[in-house]
Amino acid sequence: MMKKALLVIDVQRDVVANAFRRDDVIANISGLVDRARKEGVSVIWVQHSDDELVKGSEGWAYVDELHIAEDEPVVHKQFGDSFEGTNLDELLQQHAIEQLIVCGAQTDACIRSTLHGAIARGYNATLVSDAHTTDDCTWATPPLSAEQVIAHTNFYWNWQRTPRAAGGTSLTAEVAFAS
């Protein structure tokens, strides 16, 4: 059986302030955190900072609905990929983690980057399809709604493979921490 960890990425006040289905996604993440804790699965939190999201600011803080336990690690990052310039890989190796259950924000940035970073490093990575979110990207070319970005990411992540690892998706209600 593969040892798993729940990876909660960037559910910070300013990051999700205008996110699609914000409250539903945060409720799903909260439920996943509760289930992981009850089942003895590691919960690892990731927190982004940069010039616009200043470390220690009110907007940088995690949303009030989610509570980080004292014994749960927080990985601080400055790049989209949660592995780049952080101790995430070492932390996972210390705990013999082989599979990540991934949720959080933003779908089109830090979620995608971290998912690809995970399988490139040999970790299986399951994206919780109803527990990640983003803002509308209607300013982009082509213009995409947040719903379209999320749906596309859920679609293509099922087909991602490397010689050592695989992607996949699961609904919150179907996440199996124990198997």
Q: Could you give the topology of this structure?
A:
Elements lengths: L3 E6 L3 H4 L5 H17 L3 E7 L25 E4 L10 H7 L4 E7 L1 H14 L3 E10 L12 H12 L9 E4 L9
Parallel strand pairs: 1-2, 1-4, 2-3, 4-5, 5-6
Overall strand count: 6
Structural class: alpha/beta
Order of helices and strands: EHHEEHEHEHE
Average pLDDT value?
96
Write a short abstract of this structure.
With 179 residues, the chain is an alpha/beta fold.
Kindly describe this structure:
The structure is a single chain. The chain has 179 residues and is of the alpha/beta class. The protein has helices at residues 13-16, 22-38, 88-94, 107-120, 146-157; strands at residues 4-9, 42-48, 74-77, 99-105, 124-133, 167-170. A 6-stranded parallel β-sheet has the order 3-2-1-4-5-6. Strand 4 (99-105), helix 4 and strand 5 form a beta-alpha-beta unit. The protein starts with a strand and ends in a 9-residue tail after the last strand.
What brief labels describe this structure?
179 residues; alpha/beta; 6-stranded parallel sheet; 5 helices
